[in-house]
Fold these 2 entries.
Entry 1:
Amino acid sequence: GINAEYGQIVSAIQPTGEPHLGNYLGALKQWVSLQDQHQNCIFGIADNHVFTSKTTAKQVRHNTLSQVAVLLALGLDPERVILYKHSAVLQHTALAWLLSTAATSGLMTRLRSLPQYKEKSQVHDNL
């Protein structure tokens, strides 16, 4: 999201496979241009989120490194932005656990109506 008051950009992408045109047009192209427009950009690789689909740790590692290589090749400058991997920030995992323990059944029912949940539940039997 964008915090207009501070000019801060925070965005992340899941390393679900090899980067493709949709990734480029949907986010990556904008990330490169945003680093020129804002002083405080934080971009992440949401590798923990990939485990909601059927994948292996080896695939996630490969896809994460591939995603980072593409970001650097497109011109994302690690001297000007923060580029991080979700799983490297232990507080991210701890916060997710705390939030999951506080989720009520009513909230879970509402979350199941989100398009992301509906899309993944159609593909995977275990959601």
Entry 2:
Amino acid sequence: MELIPDEVKVQILSYLSLSDLCQVSLVSRFWNFLALDHSLWRYISIKRNTNDETLSRIIEKHPYITHFNFKYKNNDKVTEAGLSRVFVQCGPTLSHIFLDACDLLSSDLISVIVEYCVSLSHLDISSNTCVDDVTLCQLATCQNLISLDISNCDRVTDGGLEMLITQRPLTKLIASYLLDVRLRTIENLITYCSFTLHTLYLDGGNLCDEDVAKLGQITTLRELEIQYCDEITDMGVVPLSHLSYLSTLRLYRCFNLTSYSVTEIVKKCCFLNQLVLSDCSEIDDRGLISIGHYCTNLEKLGLAQSYSHTITDVGLCAVLLGCRRLREVILKGLKGVRTFVSLVPVLKEKRLKYLHLGGCQNIPPSLLETVAALTPHLNLYGHYANQVKKSQYVSGCLGRDDTDKEEYSVMDYKTSFRC
């Protein structure tokens, strides 16, 4: 080890979690010096057993933090003043801040972030009751802000989003469950963000076909999520086929969608990598046949239905045989699926890692056991989500990509100073 340069040792340590780094720092003074290198402490996630004193020690030792994530709700050991000190001292380098459901967030704290965090590019302030249109007006002055999550902030309206969007061309906007956000915001996105926006979540709003159809004009979109919008029909979704570079599309509980809109989208969106159509109960085998025919790059598919009979073995076979890159498939509640013995050779190819058939009541348990025995690499779930067999693969479960929220604990940080 003495022949290895210190820079290489630090690079090796960069693959460890902060908890492991704390353990390394206890080995000797030399390893304590390496383990406390500033480059290793750029990603901080505050959880339990953290107080203002610990925060102060962290930022004094490591003032070059770039990612700060305050995850623990109802933490009475950390105060607003403690968080303010973090943003004041580490502001020049902080680029990613996550304060979702943070009890300490206030208009004063937002002002501190805006004033001192000059490099801020990604901000998550979702599920905070203090966030309103005034907050968005403040954030409009952040010169480098490109990603914003304001989900479940009930006091935000079209007016506040208009003020933000007209001044800050965002690349990512998560605005889920904002009941007062509709057509006006979408029109502003088209006008001011049509060349920059690549990720958009609009869940649970009062969206109609006219609103969704206009999204087809934001041709830069790569990821789009819409859910719990009961009024949307094929008329609104078909124009999304103009998003030729779309790689991720999630449509949850859009009950009026049929296989026609699915076919039109997969025909033109040839780069689709992830497709979720859960609880879109009017979709049948014709939609799955189209997916199997056109979605050659598809890796993740979600079709969890509320005990639907419209999707059968024919649709399942079309998808698994046609989409040769599939790694994860969720087909919960499909009563029409009964057997897939003919697909065993495909499943044995080891490309599919996760198959969820929970609620598919008509698949014999003996068949699932046979498939599990023949496919040791496959995570297979049967009726009512009982796990038939688990491999080492861990599924992403077709959820949102939260790679921005890297989790690093500082629970054992105090131990790193004992050497």
